[in-house]
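Tutorial, part two.
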Amino acid sequence: MKIVVYGAGGIGCYVGGRLTATGTPVTFVGRQRMAAELAAHGLHLTDYLGADLRVAPDQVRFETTPAAAAEADLVLVTVKSAATEAAAAELAEVLKPGAIVMSFQNGVRNGELLRSRLSDQVVVTGMVPFNVLNRGAGVFHQGTEGALDVQRDPASTPYLEAFARAGLPLTQHDDILPVQWAKLLLNLNNPVNALSNLPLRDELSQRAYRRCLAAAQSETLGLLDAAGIRPAQLLAVPMHRFPAVLRLPDFLFRRLAAKVLAIDPLARTSMWEDLEAGRPTEIDYLNGEVVRLAESLGRSAPVNRRLVELIRAAETDRRTWSGPELLRELQR
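Running the prediction step on this input gives:
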């Protein structure tokens, strides 16, 4: 099995690193900056359950050009959503016919885009439900629960054992789109968390921030109903009822949604990481996806549109929003 991680950032290094640490060789393809970091430090992979895995620097196979994927049997695409089209074009030039390409990215359209460019390969749409924090020096930490979700496809069968051994079993779904939308509903918190400048657990412990998320989710759920899309149930509470739970007073929320707050204190969102690093965020592929859905239905999505605007502003002029301030902004 020749496995390549294409886009070795936080998710790519974590997933590929766990495969490598448990006996499945992986080649990472990414930027020179990450190549240098892993050459110096190797990989150190931890999670909220206490996992502690290491890959020595000389065991990390890292390349910086698309040619490294030429002989791959399985390619895990983990680039940011904005880079999917470029990645598809690069892979189309080098992949052998019949290679399997799994998309583990945010948003709902990446698998479709890859499939349109990689007609000689098997594209499997996937989703990463958990959060990974890049702590620097080769340390990547999974701060929230979850395995890996993929569209059911016989092509995945030879790899099921390797992923299970790595502690990241592939959960297969007959229809991945409802799962993607359910994850996107949860990811609508990414801009709220990034603007709060707080760890996830601290942010979700405050009712004002939760009401911001509830407003974005309620707006999205109405649009999904209009589009005939029913999101999968990822939590104990059905997604259509989750906004009401988020709006509960803090003491009731802590009692009824304790599992939601059972988050590693280190956990933050990738959008917060991007703002910290001065990188463009994936806001167009999260809340921006809701705005696109609204436009396709001839409707509007003012809450999600405003969150898109606030994150775009934060990409050039960072500020921290208190919960009440952000809620007032979204209610205007």
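The chain is about 45% helix and 15% strand. In part three we will examine how such features are distributed along the chain.
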